[in-house]
Each structure stands twice: as structure tokens, then as C-alpha cells.
């Protein structure tokens, strides 16, 4: 039994071929399994009014190739080939609204830390995936804790690369939070400033202005972060996207929310049992959430969609 059994999916694209779901396997001596040497993306496709479409696909491809760079990982497929493969993958499985997971990783050849003789394997999977932090979370907001685990600094491991191995940090923080009865964590960076969630960027609203940690705060350069910055600027808000946010500012914020391809726009109603603002979804968060869902449901903003 697996969590995928109930889903109507049967095909994965693997190194150029469409293979049956159960055949998309790799050797136990795969380099990436031992050393976390893979890079990946998490992309949503929405069933928009204009038809099924991948949201901000081009930016996800940009980041996939950029993530591969520091690791010298040669992705042997062009953007067009990966796009064609993904579109056909969704088509073959009749997937409209779903989550897409491309991954490129050092494969099977030898097991020294140096991956020099290992091939780069590339696969793409897709499956239906509902709201990441729960349906209720979108309306009510989530309760989070500041993790005792710090985010590694970008001087230790590039944090702007979406690398598989990095997610042990996210796992530690997220599981610590859930063990303590919270839905999600916030991680501080090495300097003790607010970095992000384990799989989300973080935004703070104060006195009608919007703040989010800058890229030098050891965060992932989130694509939803960029979407939200564009949407808030268009609505006339002042956005500070290059700031440090101290832990204490979390508690005194008027509103806080997470953004991410999986989490979309999720309000935060409590941090460490302290109510944020009125302790429920705030008005600015609601407005931005509405703006975000209007875009992804309508599919009207052509430059952000790759229609399937
Ligand atoms: C650590 C981390 N930060 C932020 C994000 C949000 O990024 P995006 O909006 O591109 O999904 C993610 C999710 O990919 C993440 O894993």
C-alpha cells in the first residue's frame, strides 16, 4: 500500500520514456539516495477557465536548471523536451488540477562522494494533490512554532538551489512542530532572523505595508513569493522584499502568511501560541489570497501559464 494507491495515476516519465508507475525505480546505490545530490521542482497545474495549465512553468524550469548549476549536474534534456514530456504526462493520465514533480539527480555508477562518473537521471511525476496544509487552513490560518532547528546558511549549502538533501532540515523543523501539536514550523536563519517555513516563504503585514525576508536571509527564492509580490504591488501596497525580520516582529505583526507552490497562500493565525493580529485570517491576507486564487482559477494571465 502507498499513499498513491487511491490516485488515478499510472505513468511516470523517466529518462526520456513513459514507464509504468511501479517500474519507475532506481538502484539502491544511486548517488542521490546516499548524498542528497538531486534537484527538483514542485509545480501546480490548475484546471483554469482557459483549460488545464501549468502555473509559472517557465520560472520553475529556470530554477531547476539554476539549482543544478552549483552541483555540476548536467540535465541532458532541453526545456522544450521537459515541457513536452510534462504536457504529455498530464494528458496521458487525464490530469487537470495536479502537482508536478520534476527531479534530476546523480544516479548509479560509483559511490564515492564525487559524482563524476554518475549519470544524471531525470524523471517527472504528477498526481492530484489538494491543499497542502489542509482546506481549513486557507480560511482559518495555521498555528506554527518557531523551530529549535536553524536553517543552514547559504554559505554552507546554496539555499537558492532546490536540492533534495536540504529537505532533511525542513523535515526536522516540520516534524518537531507537528510533534508539539502545531501544523507547521518557521525556521530562523543562522543569524537568528526569520528565514521561512520548511516548504514556504513567509510574509508579514504591518501598518498596511508588506514585508518578506530578502534573498540573503538564506531562503529559497520562491516563485509564489514572486507571484505575491507582483500581485501586492499591483494593488498599490508598499512591499519590502529585501529585509531582515526579527523573531519578535512575528508576534507583533498585524498579519502573517505563508506562500508556496504547495501551500499557495496560507494565513498564520498563531506563532508559539501567541495570536497574530486578531488571531484569524487578516484582511490583507484575504485580499491577496483572493487575488492569487482569481489568477490561478481564471488562467487569464497568459504569461504565467503553460496551457496543457
Ligand atoms: C524551503 C522552501 N521555501 C520556500 C518555498 C516556496 O517556493 P515556491 O513558491 O517556489 O514553491 C518552498 C517550496 O518550494 C520551499 O521548499
Automatic annotation (TrEMBL):
Catalytic reaction(s) noted: L-leucine + 2-oxoglutarate = 4-methyl-2-oxopentanoate + L-glutamate; L-isoleucine + 2-oxoglutarate = (S)-3-methyl-2-oxopentanoate + L-glutamate; L-valine + 2-oxoglutarate = 3-methyl-2-oxobutanoate + L-glutamate
InterPro entries (alphabetical): Aminotrans_IV (IPR001544), Aminotransferase-like (IPR036038), B_amino_transI (IPR005785), BCAT-like_C (IPR043132), BCAT-like_N (IPR043131), BCAT_family (IPR033939), Class-IV_PLP-Dep_Aminotrnsfr (IPR050571)
Pfam families named in the record: Aminotran_4
Domain of life: Archaea
GO biological process: isoleucine biosynthetic process; L-leucine biosynthetic process; L-valine biosynthetic process
Family per similarity comment: Belongs to the class-IV pyridoxal-phosphate-dependent aminotransferase family.
Annotated protein name in UniProt: Branched-chain-amino-acid aminotransferase
Organism encoding this protein: Halobacterium hubeiense
Amino acid at each position: 500500500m502507498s499513499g498513491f494507491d487511491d490516485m488515478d495515476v499510472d505513468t511516470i516519465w523517466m529518462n526520456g520514456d513513459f514507464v509504468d508507475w511501479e517500474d519507475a525505480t532506481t538502484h539502491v546505490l544511486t548517488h542521490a539516495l546516499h548524498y542528497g545530490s538531486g534537484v527538483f521542482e514542485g509545480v501546480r497545474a490548475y484546471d483554469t477557465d482557459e483549460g488545464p495549465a501549468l502555473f509559472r512553468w517557465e520560472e520553475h524550469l529556470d530554477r531547476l536548471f539554476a539549482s543544478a548549476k552549483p552541483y555540476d549536474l548536467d540535465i541532458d534534456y532541453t526545456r522544450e523536451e521537459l515541457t513536452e514530456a510534462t504536457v504529455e504526462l498530464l494528458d496521458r493520465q487525464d490530469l487537470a488540477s495536479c502537482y508536478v514533480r520534476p527531479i534530476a539527480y546523480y544516479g548509479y555508477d560509483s559511490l564515492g562522494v564525487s559524482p563524476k562518473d554518475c549519470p544524471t537521471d531525470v524523471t517527472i511525476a504528477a498526481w492530484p494533490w489538494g491543499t497542502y496544509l489542509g482546506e481549513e487552513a486557507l480560511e482559518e490560518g495555521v498555528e506554527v512554532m518557531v523551530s529549535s532547528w536553524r536553517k543552514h546558511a547559504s554559505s554552507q549549502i546554496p539555499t537558492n538551489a532546490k536540492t533534495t538533501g536540504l529537505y532533511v532540515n525542513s523535515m526536522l523543523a516540520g516534524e518537531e512542530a507537528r510533534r508539539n501539536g502545531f501544523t507547521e514550523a518557521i525556521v530562523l536563519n543562522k543569524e537568528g532572523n526569520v528565514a521561512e517555513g520548511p516548504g514556504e516563504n513567509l510574509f508579514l503585514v504591518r501598518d498596511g505595508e508588506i514585508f518578506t525576508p530578502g534573498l540573503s536571509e538564506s531562503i529559497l527564492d520562491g516563485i509564489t513569493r514572486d507571484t505575491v509580490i507582483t500581485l501586492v504591488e499591483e494593488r498599490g501596497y508598499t512591499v519590502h522584499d529585501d529585509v531582515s525580520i526579527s523573531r519578535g516582529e512575528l508576534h507583533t505583526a498585524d498579519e502573517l502568511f505563508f506562500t508556496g507552490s504547495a501551500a499557495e497562500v496560507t494565513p498564520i493565525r498563531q506563532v508559539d501560541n501567541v495570536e497574530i493580529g486578531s488571531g484569524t485570517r487578516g484582511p490583507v491576507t484575504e485580499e491577496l489570497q483572493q487575488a492569487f486564487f482569481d489568477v490561478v482559477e481564471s488562467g487569464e494571465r497568459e504569461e504565467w501559464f503553460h496551457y496543457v
